[in-house]
Each structure stands twice: as structure tokens, then as C-alpha cells.
Write a structure and sequence with these properties.
With 209 residues, the chain is mostly helical. The protein is built from eight helices and five strands; from the N terminus they run αααββαβαααββα. The strands form two sheets. It has a three-stranded antiparallel β-sheet. Helix 6 crosses helix 7.
Length: 209
């Protein structure tokens, strides 16, 4: 028969017999370190190295060089002050890749309407066309402020000015525009577009000849 003393002593003895689990914290720490090193460092490093090896041009910013000098990136719009060049879309970021952003003005904001109206008349005077002929993308900013492309229509309204400034026949410039018009991506998504930087560089090559 079990004594009262032994009955009272049993829970304490059982509690003392339970080993302290010191492995759970260690496992969590080891797992955390592995995840940080694996996904935070090794995964990014391997991805960057593979990208550089398989797609060196894209991985380094799609930089366009002429005679060993970087003239810009295919992916980033830049302004052209000279009348001899096609102009890109306006930029809320000032064409600064480190400040990519849109204007964040709502369509109902009167400041947006005022700015667009001003740009419409500015572009119309610059290109010698009626305000109603100004394509919307020449007076509106893209979400990033760095869109490097224009539609063929937005390029076409600039052909006469560029040709006159360079002393070229407009048909010569139109040939370059057609040559630099890209179709839909893989023939399905997207719309025809022209990379402004590439077109302007082609103009320089043509003018040099």
C-alpha cells in the first residue's frame, strides 16, 4: 500500500525527472541563420551571377554605347534639348532614374488639366500642328516618368521638325521611324512602339553619312 508521503512526493519527483529542452532555441537560431544566408545572400548572389552570365547586356542596365561612350539606356527616357532630335514623353521625375515616379495628380485635379493644356499648346507650337493633333502621350507623364518609348503616331508628328532641323527629306526620317518601330511583344501583348534613344542615335548616324 502506497504511503501518503510517497503520494505527495511523486509529482515533485516526476517534475524533476523531466529534462530541460535546450534544443528548441538552438534549432530556431540555426534555421534563421540558414534562411538569411541561403535566401538573403546566396540566392541573390547566384541569381545575379546567372543573370550577368546569361544576359550580360540586360543585367548591366541595357546601356547603349557609341564609340566607347555610354549615351544612355534603352530602358530609361532622357530629354533632348536640340530641335534635331525626337522628344520623349514628359517626366514627373525629371528623367532621374533615382526618383522614378508619376505626378500622382488625380484626373479631377485642376492643376493636372492646367498643365496638360499648357503642354498641348507648347507641343503644337513646337511641331507646327493644331492643338487637336497633339497625341496624348506627348503631354502626359507615365507612371514611372521614365518610359523610353513613344507610339508611332507621337513620333510621326515630330518628323517634319526633325527633318527640317537636320536638312533632310522627311521621307528619309520616316524610313528610320519605320525601321525602329517595334511590334507587339511576341506578336500578342503590347502595341507598336518606338525607342526614342535608338531612333535619335540612328538619326545621328544618318546625318554623319
Amino acid at each position: 500500500m502506497t504511503s501518503l508521503t510517497s503520494l505527495h512526493d511523486t509529482p515533485a519527483a516526476a517534475h524533476a525527472a523531466v529534462p530541460e529542452d535546450r534544443t528548441s532555441l538552438r534549432g530556431a537560431l540555426v534555421f534563421t541563420v540558414l534562411v538569411l544566408l541561403g535566401f538573403g545572400l546566396l540566392y541573390s548572389l547566384v541569381g545575379a551571377l546567372l543573370g550577368r552570365a546569361l544576359f550580360p547586356y540586360q543585367a548591366t542596365g541595357s546601356l547603349v554605347t557609341v564609340d566607347g561612350r555610354v549615351r544612355g539606356s534603352e530602358l530609361v527616357a532622357q530629354p533632348f534639348a536640340d530641335a534635331r532630335y525626337f522628344q520623349p514623353r514628359p517626366s514627373a521625375a525629371g528623367y532621374d532614374p533615382m526618383a522614378a515616379a508619376g505626378s500622382n495628380l488625380a484626373r479631377s485635379n485642376p492643376e493636372l488639366r492646367k498643365r496638360i493644356d499648357g503642354l498641348i499648346h507648347e507641343v503644337a507650337r513646337r511641331e507646327g500642328i493644331a492643338p487637336g493633333q497633339v497625341p496624348a502621350e506627348l503631354v502626359t507623364q507615365s507612371g514611372s516618368g521614365l518610359d523610353p518609348h513613344l507610339s508611332p503616331a507621337a513620333v510621326q508628328v515630330q518628323v517634319a521638325r526633325v527633318a527640317k532641323a537636320r536638312g533632310l527629306d522627311p521621307s528619309e526620317v520616316e524610313v528610320l521611324v519605320r525601321e525602329h518601330t517595334q511590334g507587339a511583344t511576341f506578336g500578342v501583348p503590347g502595341a507598336p512602339r518606338v525607342n526614342v534613344l535608338q531612333l535619335n542615335l540612328a538619326l545621328d548616324r544618318l546625318h554623319a553619312r
